[in-house]
Amino acid sequence: xxxxxxxxxxxxxxxxxxxxxxxxxxxxxxxxxxxxxxxxxxxxxxxxxxxxxxxxxxxxxxxxxxxxxxxxxxxxxxxxxxxxxxxxxxxxxxxxxxxxxxxxxxxxxxxxxxxxxxxxxxxxxxxxxxxxxxxxxxxxxxxxxxxxxxxxxxxxxxxxxxxxxxxxxxxxxxxxxxxxxxxxxxxxxxxxxxxxxxxxxxxxxxxxxxxxxxxxxxxxxxxxxxxxxxxxxxxxxxxxxxxxxxxxxxxxxxxxxxxxxxxxxxxxxxxxxxxxxxxxx
Length: 281
Fold this sequence. Notes:
Layout: H1 15-19, H2 26-39, E1 47-54, E2 59-64, H3 71-78, H4 96-104, E3 105-113, E4 119-126, H5 127-132, E5 143-147, E6 156-164, H6 172-183, H7 185-189, E7 193-197, E8 200-201, E9 215-220, E10 226-233, E11 244-249, E12 252-258, E13 271-278
Parallel strand pairs: 1-7, 11-13
Antiparallel strand pairs: 1-2, 2-6, 3-4, 3-6, 4-5, 7-8, 9-10, 10-13, 11-12
């Protein structure tokens, strides 16, 4: 005799904490939050994204003036694996925001207000309380709603992360400015977004290449997509390893200075290029 038995497989409450253990570096985790902001940009309007690193009080803030979220959007953003984004968006799988925030700190607060709405929604996560308070569960996560006066009206999303798990130090501003200038160059060049880290403005970074060395590349894939881009030679060799191929998808850098197809070597330290995966053609 075979009997069907129904069991409860609700994820353990430690799942959000564990998502933060996937090995994000500080820069990668912040980039996940920037991806969400870029996905929420308003068409035909330059979105302003501000990243604040508070070295004294030890907190990280990311805010944008994009579309913002309503109650259901925020609920979905806090639901594990609740991906609602369409093909072509930078974040599609409902993991990035939770895992990125949890990788950065034990506490985070999300405030958001949808464009053309007078309501602000707020969600707060405290790792210690979440794991130790039996009254908190997946089924009663609290989101607060506030009615905004005309003077308070705003749109976009603001995230503040505290009780950090990662170190902060001043030269990160310069490092992130340069790396985000590479990572988000297509969006910065087309003025779809501007990104500011403390007082530093990210500028799209282009490589200084030898005249006549650039070769365009287009490779069709069996999936119906294609990889296109170029390879070229830098005017100066990079002794810091800053050579290789930048891999982009949907206009966002996935890996920088990737050395596939050749091994790292001083004689090859002038190779530079871009590879981008495009949709079906």
